[in-house]
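Researcher: Next entry in the queue.
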Amino acid sequence: MKRIIVDGSILDVCPVFKGAAVYAEFVNTPYCAELWKEIELSISQCCERYTTESVKHIPSIEATRRVYRKLGKDPSRYRPSGEALIRRVLQGKDLYQINTAVDLINLASIEYGYSIGGFDYSKIEGDTLRLGVGQKDEPYEGIGRGLLNIEGLPVYRDKIGGIGTPTSDHERTSLSLDTTHLLAIVNGYDGNALGVVACAQRIAELIGKYTVCKSCNIASF
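Model: Structure for this entry, 221 residues:
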């Protein structure tokens, strides 16, 4: 397992931060019909529960937006992924179907509102991930977004650079059909340790249900 360190630059603006990491060895697939039945049910429940105005007041989302503002980033321009996913379904847009690993992480994010990083563990360089703050002109290629300005965004860095922010993960460590070792990180800027672990447990449950899973472990940090 990678060691995950939270820098003082994050703790200064969010001293209550809680995280959980899910490590899994599994077989990924392009699509899982049974998983998508759960996703469609969750989308329906979201549409009953929230509006595009109320979504930003979900505690896990509201706390992430607050940290963005403290770091000088506009959360309405660089939306946290948990918020962006829920907003998308509330607007009646189809949820992106990527692959089973990505899809199940998106489901957990919709259910809990947390922004969840999903990484190919084998592509992470070094033995440590450090959560800090993006710097001016720091190079970063967001998945499907091209070059992303991560100045002022919380960012996980490995030995050679950034791999994940709450707005977008990096192409370099993205989950693909070739991924056999997954790392998912739940980011709790709301300080809700129980909620963060519950979300991580939900990811582990979904991996066990909808993939051929060889091992799965959860670690809090």
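Model: The CA atoms of residues 82 and 115 lie 5 Å apart.
Researcher: Noted, moving on.
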